[in-house]
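ok new one. same drill as before - structure tokens go in, u give me an amino acid for every spot. 427 of them this time. try not to just spam alanines like last time pls lmao
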């Protein structure tokens, strides 16, 4: 039975608002006809109460700490899947069978190399430039070398575009890293899987064979899987917003990279390591730092989330993984102990309890990435590689939606009312 709610406005006008119910029994008021029937709009700065779309891709229950991609619990994917398989499932909706997975992996291998023109473009990026700047501009540049990808006309055409983007983003990331350290680029190898190839392009030396540590490969798969989607976060909403104008997949995802860069979003993984590093170097102590957090002079980076008000399941998995992987690799990182101390203090402190602040995905991811050799300035790039399947899936959902309209919020204007132009000599 369809449900509705009533909204009573001043002047005794009452209107019915249909209620939209999601497959997990989430309820939303459909205000699609509100302005045309009443003249009112709603206002919700930072969109804390606004559903921007209906989507089949990702489900989060922030009160219970649940995250599922297409129905699959994140814990099961992190434990059993690979990044390539998870990416397929996010983009196409179902887990692939053997043949589909082989075909998808084959496409990723085929499209890993960059056009030589694009490779040479790295020579003109300054070594001190931020890899996120390089990443977003190079993603856009890919489409210039493959203009046929700008107009997607079939699922097969989209599959090639998606494979090119997902595969090349990793090549671009690794090339940009080598550029920053002045090392020659390493081309992708067709016999390596996605994560191994990334490690090869990042770290292998010319003229020597590369033997990736299987624990490192597995940890990398897990890091990417845990970042692969998170429904309507800032960068994914950006991708959907840009895509709603009809902008192509590459332009939309390049915009997603820019949104992710900020320290309140994907840039938080860098900010966490900076914070831990400051404490480790003695510039501040745990106690002094926490006092500053509570007096709002500092933020406890890697803590808090708009949606999770209980715990972030990704943080739990990454914490466990860090505790397992670091000893396996023989890494003793003092920052892990500092992170644990901060976490324990925060979880027992009224300031954090009252505000329901818990460790988020960025709190432990940096420690794990550091242990597998990823340099700090690449952390947010790693997040971007991981998030790419989600961005691609969301872009395609918008692209395929027959009812999609350009996203265009309204506003409540608070500036000056009409006034006359003052000539320069009268100002
Ligand atoms: N440290 C100290 N206080 C905090 C923190 C924090 N990390 N996060 C939120 N608060 C306080 C905030 O000051 C506010 O206090 P009050 O009620 O006294 O004004 C209250 O908690 C509610 O916070 P909010 O800023 O209204 O929450 P939000 O939903 O707008 O912001 C957030 C969410 C993630 C941006 C924020 O928690 C934050 O800045 N965290 C640190 C940065 C971070 O770790 N970002 C990564 C997020 S997860 C991955 C991703 O999405 O990229």
């Amino acid at each position: 039975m369809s449900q509705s709610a009533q909204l009573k406005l001043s002047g005794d006008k009452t209107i019915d608002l249909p209620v939209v119910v999601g497959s997990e029994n989430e309820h939303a008021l459909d205000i699609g006809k509100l302005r045309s029937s009443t003249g009112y709009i709603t206002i919700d700065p930072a969109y804390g109460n606004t559903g921007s779309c209906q989507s089949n891709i990702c489900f989060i229950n922030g009160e219970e700490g649940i995250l599922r991609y297409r129905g699959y619990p994140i814990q099961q994917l992190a434990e059993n899947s690979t990044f390539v398989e998870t990416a397929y499932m996010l983009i196409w909706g179902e887990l692939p069978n053997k043949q589909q997975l082989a075909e998808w992996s084959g496409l990723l291998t085929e499209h890993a190399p960059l056009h030589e023109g694009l490779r040479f473009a790295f020579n003109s990026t300054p070594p001190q430039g931020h890899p996120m700047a390089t990443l977003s501009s190079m993603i856009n540049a890919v489409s210039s070398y493959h203009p046929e990808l700008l107009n997607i006309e079939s699922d097969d055409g989209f599959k090639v575009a998606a494979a090119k983007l997902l595969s090349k983003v990793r090549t671009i990331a690794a090339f940009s890293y080598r550029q920053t350290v002045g090392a020659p680029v390493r081309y992708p190898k067709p016999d390596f899987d996605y994560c191994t190839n990334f490690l090869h392009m990042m770290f292998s030396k010319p003229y020597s064979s590369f033997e990736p540590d299987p624990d490192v490969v597995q940890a990398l798969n897990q890091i990417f899987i845990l970042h692969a989607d998170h429904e309507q976060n800032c960068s994914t909403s950006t991708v959907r917003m840009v895509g709603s104008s009809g902008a192509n997949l590459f332009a939309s995802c390049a915009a997603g990279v820019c949104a992710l860069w900020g320290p309140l979003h994907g840039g938080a993984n860098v900010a966490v390591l900076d914070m831990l590093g400051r404490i480790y170097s003695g510039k501040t102590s745990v106690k002094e730092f926490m006092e500053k957090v509570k007096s709002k002079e500092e933020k406890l980076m890697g803590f808090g989330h708009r949606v999770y008000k209980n715990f972030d399941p990704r943080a739990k998995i990454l914490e466990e993984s860090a505790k397992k992987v670091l000893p396996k690799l023989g890494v003793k990182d003092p920052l892990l102990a500092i992170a644990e101390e901060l976490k324990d203090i925060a979880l027992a402190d009224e300031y954090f309890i009252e505000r329901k602040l818990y460790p988020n995905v960025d709190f432990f991811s940096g420690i794990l990435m550091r242990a597998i050799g990823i340099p700090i300035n690449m952390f947010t790039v790693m997040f971007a590689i991981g998030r790419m399947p989600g961005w691609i899936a969301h872009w395609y959902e918008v692209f395929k939606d027959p009812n999609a309209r350009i996203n265009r919020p309204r506003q409540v204007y608070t500036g000056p009312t009409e006034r006359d132009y003052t000539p320069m000599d009268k100002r």
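The mean pLDDT is 95. and btw Strands lie at 3-9, 13-21, 27-29, 58-61, 66-69, 72-73.
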